[in-house]
Amino acid sequence: MTLLLGGARSGKSAHAEQLATVFPAPWTYIATAQAYDDEMAERIALHRGRRVEGWETLDAPLDLAGAIESVPDGRPLLVDCLTLWLSNHLLAEHDVERESERLAQVLGKPRGPWFVVANEVGLGIVPDNALARRFRDAAGRLNQKIAARATHVLFMVAGLPMQVK
Amino acid sequence: MTLLLGGARSGKSAHAEQLATVFPAPWTYIATAQAYDDEMAERIALHRGRRVEGWETLDAPLDLAGAIESVPDGRPLLVDCLTLWLSNHLLAEHDVERESERLAQVLGKPRGPWFVVANEVGLGIVPDNALARRFRDAAGRLNQKIAARATHVLFMVAGLPMQVK
Amino acid sequence: MTLLLGGARSGKSAHAEQLATVFPAPWTYIATAQAYDDEMAERIALHRGRRVEGWETLDAPLDLAGAIESVPDGRPLLVDCLTLWLSNHLLAEHDVERESERLAQVLGKPRGPWFVVANEVGLGIVPDNALARRFRDAAGRLNQKIAARATHVLFMVAGLPMQVK
């Protein structure tokens, strides 16, 4: 399992797609984004448009562990992305620690070449509002949890990977 | 062409100056900053004050590609910085994709040792306002475009370079 | 002296504790946090709870240089963290350049295995308010100053160290 971390527009998704498609099709793409406004709908369409034939797309804004468990053994998998999934749970006021733990269990036992995208959001100024601080902390803890179980961790900078692990 | 990426006060400009002045003078410095307030005027003065004799300074808040084209063959060049230039175009409501593409064309054909500074701004929390999000996206895309054409990419951390490419 | 830089929840403190406790106890922990609200009190309690026996804790929200000078020769030391210390001085309207310079002098002459934690806060969007920008600039300058005197600099990503120096 490879974790791809990076900031906004750092080329995480495109690089993860390149890595996954080194393996033979079909590939599974699990999207966690919810199109709750036009801006987000546009971003989702952009990501979908870039993917070539051979991709099967599953939507899993909340039950990501379940979606991953449904993927056949040996199938190349791209999860995009953990941070939106976490944000969906936080907004729904779910127990994010329990959800993160369950997800880590599933991702920690990969059954094929799995590529997982997540955002690094903790390198700016401390946010003013308490919800943003809680989100930032939860995202950082989740990234640490998944990174500890990954065989490779990449930090993306301007479309280029730096190997962290 | 070397791209130096980093956060605020990460030592990008000072390191770029060190790299450029390894080559014999004269050196050309293209500044993209506009002194629209006192704080910015102070920063510009600070940067200018640090540069020793031997530097020729051009101001190019908008026509950066044109300024770069005017630089003689073989001349060491420092562009500081892409992110302010992008911000100037965004505020002027210009077509930043077209401008970025033109700039990438010019930077992709270096005619000497060229050093280009840009900010990484996508590693914090998603900004509240839509303009900041658009800026963040455009800056990330521009960094990717230039990084793809660079021979070397450095990520600056506390004044120290990490080699990305 | 080793400087550990990273974002929020990047695992800086935990990794620094691991590095310090490779050396024999007792270890000195200098905390710069002030529990001015419940959220901060909780974070401090969490950090204290993680540390095992063998740690002696000093509180130094302002006189960090003095606290470090009081540590016996050869004693493993963890300073956590520079960025909160800087923020305490900024809020108290002290001369942060002078304080930073004094601190750099003391940290530049380590008398044992010293580990220093600091936040990288400059990789997000430029903050709206002037105080946050001043803080961000001062934090970046301080990080550069200490990094220049460190023998090792680590950039923490999701709990994993990247060696910068």
TrEMBL record, chains A, B, C:
Keywords: ATP-binding, Cobalamin biosynthesis, GTP-binding, Kinase, Nucleotide-binding, Nucleotidyltransferase, Transferase. It catalyses: adenosylcob(III)inamide + ATP = adenosylcob(III)inamide phosphate + ADP + H(+); adenosylcob(III)inamide phosphate + GTP + H(+) = adenosylcob(III)inamide-GDP + diphosphate; adenosylcob(III)inamide + GTP = adenosylcob(III)inamide phosphate + GDP + H(+). Gene3D superfamilies: P-loop containing nucleotide triphosphate hydrolases. Its EC number is 2.7.1.156, 2.7.7.62. It is an enzyme of class 2 (transferase). GTP binds at residues 6-13, 31-33, 48-51, 80. The active site is at residue 47. GO terms for molecular function: adenosylcobinamide kinase activity; ATP binding; cobinamide phosphate guanylyltransferase activity; GTP binding. One of its GO terms (biological process) is cobalamin biosynthetic process. Pfam families: CobU (PF02283). It comes from the Bacteria. Pathway: Cofactor biosynthesis; adenosylcobalamin biosynthesis; adenosylcobalamin from cob(II)yrinate a,c-diamide: step 6/7; Cofactor biosynthesis; adenosylcobalamin biosynthesis; adenosylcobalamin from cob(II)yrinate a,c-diamide: step 5/7. Belongs to the CobU/CobP family. Catalyzes ATP-dependent phosphorylation of adenosylcobinamide and addition of GMP to adenosylcobinamide phosphate. This is Bifunctional adenosylcobalamin biosynthesis protein. It comes from Pseudaminobacter salicylatoxidans.
